[in-house]
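Hi team,

Filling in the usual template for the complex we talked about on Friday. All components are listed, including any nucleic acid strands or ligand strings, so the model treats them as one assembly.

SUBMITTER: L.P.
PURPOSE: interface mapping
COMPONENTS: two
RESIDUES: 890
SEQUENCES:
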Amino acid sequence: MTHSITITVNGQAYTRQVDARLLLSDFIRHELLLTGTHVGCEHGVCGACTVLFDGEPVRSCLMFAVQADGHAITTVEGLSSDPERLHPLQQAFWEAHGLQCGFCTPGFLMTLVPFLEANPTPSEAEVREAISGNLCRCTGYQHIVDAVLLAATRLNGD
Amino acid sequence: MRAIGSSLPRGDAVGKVVGATPYSGDLSMPGMLHAVTLFARRPHARILALDLGEAGRVPGVVCILTAADVPHNRFGLNVPDQPVLCGPGDDEHASRVRFVGDKVAVVVAETVEAAERARALIRVEYEALPVVPNPVAARQTGAPVLHAAHPDNVLLHYRVRKGDTLAGFAQADVVVEGEYSVGGQEHAFLQPEAGLAWLDEEGRVAVACAGQWAHEEQEQIAHALRLPDERVRVIHPAIGGAFGGREDISVQIVLALAAQKTGRPVKMVWTREESIIGHHKRHPMTYRCRTGATRDGRLVAAEVELVSDCGAYASTSTKVLGNATIMAVGPYDIPHVSIDAYTVYTNNVPSGAFRGFGAPQSHFAAESQMNKLAAALGMDPVELRLKNALRDGSLQVTQAPMPAGVSMDHVIEQCAESIGWRRTAQGWQRPAAAQPDSPWLRRGIGFAAAFKNIGFSFGYREHCWATVEIHGGGDIDRVVVRCAGSDVGQGAHLAFQQIAAEALGIEAEKVEIVSADTATTPGSSGSASASRMTFMAGNAIRGAAEKALAMWRDEEDRPVIATYEFNPPATTPMDDMGRSTPNFTYGYVAEAVEAEIDTETGEVRVRRVVCADDVGRAVNPQQVTGQIEGAVVQAQGWATIENFVQRDGLVLTPHLSTYLIPTVRDIPDRVDSIIVEVPDPLGPFGARGMAEMPFIPFAPALTAALHDATGVWFDHLPLTPVRVLETLDEQA
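RESULT (copied from the run log):
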């Protein structure tokens, strides 16, 4: 059974005929070819596939594309794709060595964008709490935490 | 500004933060087919029959590959003992499946859905065979023989005899005995295995995948397909972590075969579950140790028997066993040593390379012995280590002298001082951990040290190629470095760039790296493993750069192009007494851990880790710190929460929800990286390899901290809460 759905992704509306069981992560990756959203575990544990759903972080591997019908999705490509004008979080992950292999990075970024909007001056403990649902196997997390604190400082104009 | 020693940010990070960098699972091509694998999912069975009839009729199926399609149905990194595909027929070896991740068929179809539907319709008739669940069972009389060439299931036995242990133990005033066991470990790199294969414009079979050693993968694919190496091309796009877990073949051979058979691009992406059952693990090992010392703390004799679970196929087990053997008594000079080491086939998932490569297991046993010995002697554990640490010229257990540049005492002293050890008139003294108010929480501080080879060992061919092209007129405008070495996420290519810039006296921004493609690089770089890439590729790039620079000065032609092969000093295999020159250089590390144990729940919290790692010369200090922090947390996972469970050959933890790796909530409150720089005489600008070292001493330092906290020794990993509580109860 297929359904016609319209999803706004990174500001652009896409209408597609999809299977009811098509995952949102597969819709983003295979239908729209936005491969910045990564799939690491397929069942909501690792957080690599995190995207914004009407501004809230969700695991796109745990949702069906049809559930996003009529909603707005933001993927990592929607933050900034221009190396000259990166989002402060992207810039900070680069400068503060917040990534090694980088596979988990889009999920961290999409988890953190709304977090910093809600809490622009987080403590280190609050940053740790915020990313506690995202797995990274390379960094040991400390440089990620440093990057988030750097981004917060920059976002506050310091 | 000097290129080496500055924390330049990584060029590859920009593409990764904007989501533009393709990993192998992100690749696609017009007309691409999709492949899925039928895994055996049973640990030991004979395949009697295979019926593809119904599966082959599923609309969209293009072909189904089975054992009959593989021209040379064997592969393996060191020993080609693994069938590419298992199936019925005359080939007895390939007609048996020996672990759950053995592959039986690969379905190639127009869509993933069609391929999956067909896979479900393949009928395989199995005859179940008795399962060999562990090395103890494998060595019992009458155990099923897993490989005909090894009727006792022992793949390899190493025997080391240095000095005379009987005489040595006779001199000992104190003898400590211990038994230890450590578990396997899943790499859990975040990107599961994936690849895309096609026939390229030159008619080669090209495979883009995540690997660690493009030229070795090329060779193994060519071997299985019975093609000359140059008819196969391997490309590594961005790699989503490796840690040794991509050193073995995963999707490469079957994808190459599928592309060759269909003439179309074919893509395959493993699920996380397929990744966990499909690729090798860190070796589970058991140890029986005796260590003797004189009253004044001089080590006189050591005896070790160790057994590693090789799993179903050899993978790199023989090499890991070699490492585990020469590190089985730790980084100490001991005159009388006897070691027997075995690696044994079972029906478990094969064991193979994982950061540390046998060193973490052996150092857990050896350093636990040292901590117990210190306690038995009433001597400070740092004091005992410094009295016995390897030095330049010390004889290894293989009776060869240590290569020059040994810095064991430096890292021990710097680490100890940083966490608060004091030098007193009576020698070194451990600081006391501040105790929390809650009586069920106990804190302690522990210490351990380690050494680990850099580069391949025991006579294994070790070399690295690089080409440097200098473009410009009078001044150097641009430099292209061609070196195959893979950046598995560790930042190798930034190190290449900085080393080339340093050697040429130019800014790093002028250096472009071309790598990870067998078609565009001058030859093998060897594997991104053994903490060797900066050392080996650095030396090759430096050699090529110096050659090119001389041409630039002497010749008028532009650009100038120079190629260089770096060959380190030769190593040799062990003889029947274990005599050899095992390695050409080592890295040295010491770690102190402050930990807290909840004696009511069994939970272990790591508060602080100090790691002093001699990197020779920090090419990029920020990247070095990233390696230290990442390794410490991975080691903490291995020591505490990572519990890879296999029962009767079945994997009981095949997902990231059942196999737990550390989150940010599990990590130490603080990791202090102390970058020690004692130049390696052979290293490029003095640099040593370093990425494995911080992993190695963590576990024994942690258990020493727990002993300091509770008075109880923890000799078996992982330290799950249940095991911690049981151990506390047993020794209470």
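MY TAKE: Chain B touches chain A through 54 residues (CB under 8 Å). The radius of gyration of chain B is 26 Å.

Thanks, L.
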